[in-house]
Specification:
CATH topology of the largest domain: Thrombin, subunit H
Number of helices: 1
CATH architecture of the largest domain: Beta Barrel
Largest sheet: 6 strands, antiparallel, barrel
Distance between the termini: 18 Å
Order of helices and strands: EEEHEEEEEEE
Helix content: under 10%
Number of domains: 2
Number of strands: 10
Shape: globular
CATH class of the largest domain: Mainly Beta
Length: about 140
Amino acid sequence: MSSVVLITAFDGRDSVLSRGTGFFLSPNRLLTNMHVIKDACKAEATTASGKILSIAFVLSDSKNSDLVEVEVEGTVEHQTMLPLSDHLPDEGERVVVLGNPLGLQGTVTDGIISSIRAVEPFGSVIQMTAPVHARGILPTQAI
């Protein structure tokens, strides 16, 4: 999917610190996990077509949900934006997870929403059976 990007974070010596997944919210804004860019001196996003965009700065973040919204330098023409839903999925609903865990581009897995639970300190979380690298629960703020 063209809205999904590979995020690569670098230390001060340009060595790779981490890799993960992000997706376009608008032509120059991405959402990714905070743990992917934490402690990075610089980061970049690689699109499905191979274009590399520098991450310019953090626009907003949520430590509890491990999410960060970033702005990239430049834009990608004809880029698909991934809209956020304004409602929670139903338990039993099928889901497909697209991503680049640990830099493994184009990973696809599926599963179902097994439950929506209250988990401290996150609040309401979506638990799913689709295996993902970082966590098996998604904060509802990401929906």
